[in-house]
């Protein structure tokens, strides 16, 4: 299964689709959409000594030169994911007395962690995992539903490629939950890593430094600034859900979060105290050693947390296995620091203050109705037997 996946989701496959488009008649051509993650932009920016924004604009130009029709930034869908996570957290917090598994809410944007949870801890852990889609799969919904409709296209007329810092994102895209049965197409057809984009550039003998920048496209909203989120390089879920919950549930405006490092820098805690009592207790756990520790705490009923941002890679997505590798003589740690600095240099904006996207989120949800919105913005998890129909799937 894995080798089929790797052939189906590779930069060669994207080249093939673009080549076929050149040969095919207009009615058979696919509209090719590429969604670039901010972590990949930062990684490629570090490789070419550019700012993240500039790397995004030059990548847009490179992809369009190859025949790609639209290039989007997944920061856009990450805002959707953050807004929906905030909503989900409030709903879970309010039913925590009746439902003992409502909290802690564990984030679900990392497929490496989800695979481990489904395979190793199955039924026990699944109720805790947030059902909100990851930014990649939120983008899948937006491109194959909202954008397709806007453009008067059917979902299968679009070939949707996501550029990600991570190989596990290919497996996420191939989950049966993200297959549009009626249209017989996936929401994300192909995932390529930052490193594979680097390979594409090299195969075409192109340096990003020599490419003319072009603005990224936007889905139905105008403006050309890149949107970013303060917090970790893995999306800032903890940061945004914490500040939102503090305000909505306890009327507290939290400007700066104070992180307490627990076992190591990849296991941190943030609390909100009222009258000496910790009313909100959030944590971030990165890397499998810390994840195992968290799961043990949960199993022993000793987890004090309401919310945990869980990521499989130490240091999170900026350090993902699909990022651009260090140059000969370049130190991995220094490269990571450079990528982190580039990522953080983007303009921080709270999802609820990002009015353009927040308005689209509201109007889209309203226009499709509650049930459909749930399908478009959420997913579900399964024990391994259920997702593989009895076949063992290697992640
Ligand atoms: Fe992928 Fe690592 Fe990020 Fe998880 S933490 S989504 S495995 S890059």
Protein model, in words:
The chain starts with a helix and ends in a 7-residue tail after the last helix. By secondary structure, the chain is an alpha/beta fold. β5 and β6 (185-186) form a beta hairpin. It has helices at residues 2-8, 11-23, 38-48, 52-66, 75-94, 111-125, 135-151, 168-173, 194-203, 237-250, 288-299, 332-344, 355-368, 370-377, 384-388, and strands spanning 31-36, 70-73, 105-106, 158-164, 179-180, 185-186, 190-193, 260-261, 267-274, 277-286, 307-311. A five-stranded mixed beta sheet has the order 3-11-10-9-8, sandwiched between helices. Strands 2-1-4-7 form a four-stranded parallel beta sheet, with helices on both faces. α3 packs across α4, α3 packs across α12 and α13 crosses α14 (370-377). Helix content is 46%, strand content 13%. The protein has 15 helices and eleven strands. It has a domain at 2-77 and 134-224: Rossmann fold. 45% of the residues are buried.
Question: What is the element layout, followed by pairings?
Answer:
Layout (H helix, E strand, L loop, with lengths): L1 H7 L2 H13 L7 E6 L1 H11 L3 H15 L3 E4 L1 H20 L10 E2 L4 H15 L9 H17 L6 E7 L3 H6 L5 E2 L4 E2 L3 E4 H10 L33 H14 L9 E2 L5 E8 L2 E10 L1 H12 L7 E5 L20 H13 L10 H14 L1 H8 L6 H5 L7
Parallel strand pairs: 1-2, 1-4, 3-11, 4-7, 10-11
Antiparallel strand pairs: 5-6, 8-9, 9-10
Helix pairs in contact: 3-4, 3-12, 5-7, 5-10, 13-14
């Amino acid at each position: 299964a894995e080798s089929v996946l790797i052939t189906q989701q590779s930069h060669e496959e994207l080249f093939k689709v673009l080549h076929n488009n050149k040969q095919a008649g207009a009615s058979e051509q696919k509209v090719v959409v590429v969604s670039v993650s901010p972590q990949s932009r930062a990684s490629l920016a570090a490789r070419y000594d550019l700012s993240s924004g500039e790397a995004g604009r030059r990548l847009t130009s490179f992809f369009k030169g190859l025949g790609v029709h639209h290039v989007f930034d997944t920061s856009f869908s990450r805002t959707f994911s953050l807004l929906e996570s905030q909503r989900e957290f409030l709903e879970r917090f309010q039913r925590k007395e009746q439902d003992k598994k409502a909290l802690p809410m564990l984030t679900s944007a990392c497929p490496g962690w989800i695979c481990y949870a489904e395979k190793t801890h199955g039924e026990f852990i699944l109720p805790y995992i947030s059902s909100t889609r990851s930014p990649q799969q939120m983008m899948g919904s937006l491109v194959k539903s909202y954008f397709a409709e806007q453009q008067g296209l059917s979902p299968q007329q679009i070939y949707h490629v996501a550029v990600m810092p991570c190989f596990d994102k290919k497996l996420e895209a191939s989950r049966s939950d993200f297959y549009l049965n009626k249209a017989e197409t996936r929401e994300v057809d192909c995932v390529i890593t930052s490193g594979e984009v680097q390979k594409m550039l090299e195969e075409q003998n192109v340096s990003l430094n020599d490419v003319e920048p072009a603005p990224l496209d936007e889905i139905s909203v105008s403006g050309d600034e890149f949107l970013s989120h303060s917090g970790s390089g893995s999306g800032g879920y903890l940061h945004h859900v914490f500040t939102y919950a503090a305000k909505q549930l306890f009327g507290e405006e939290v400007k700066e979060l104070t992180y307490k490092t627990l076992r190591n820098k990849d296991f941190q805690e943030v609390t909100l105290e009222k009258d000496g009592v910790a009313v909100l207790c959030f944590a971030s756990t990165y890397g499998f050693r810390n994840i195992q520790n968290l799961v043990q705490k949960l199993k022993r009923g000793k987890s004090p947390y309401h919310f945990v941002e869980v990521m499989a890679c130490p240091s999170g997505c900026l350090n993902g296995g699909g990022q651009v590798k260090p140059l000969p003589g370049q130190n991995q740690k220094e490269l990571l620091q450079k990528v982190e600095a580039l990522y953080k240099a983007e303009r921080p904006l709270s999802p609820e203050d990002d009015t353009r996207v927040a308005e689209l989120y509201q109007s889209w949800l309203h226009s499709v109705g509650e049930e459909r919105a749930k399908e478009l913005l959420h997913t579900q998890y399964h024990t391994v037997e259920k997702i593989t129909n009895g076949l063992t799937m290697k992640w």
